[in-house]
Amino acid sequence: MNAGDQRRGLRAHLSGAAAEDIAVRAYADRGYTLAQQRWRGPQGEIDLILRKGAEVIFAEVKSSKTRDAAAARITPQQMQRVMASAAAFLDQEPRGQLTETRLDVVLVWGTGEVEILENAFGQG
Fold first, then answer.
1. Helix (H/G/I), strand (E/B), else coil: 58
2. SS3 6
């Protein structure tokens, strides 16, 4: 990997981390508690796992310069990966797969605008 690729990779990592921090604050403002950040499951990483009461929320964070560009970064393969990893996480919960859950997408764009798309995968 050359120096330019390393710089781009670092910028992408820092941008993603900043978007996740914005998302965590947006959830906290709504009464949610962060349980895990960048949790690694067998099928891949889940950006944020939050709790509100007995409910567990799995959130995929997407950022870009515009809302539409952030939304366009969501792929069917990612949805499947998040759902599979979420199922693995739920195996550790007292109620297992019966745990009340929601799968969200959080869009972050511009200078910190944020939109939480609740139950974006149509599951839960």
1. strand
2. helix
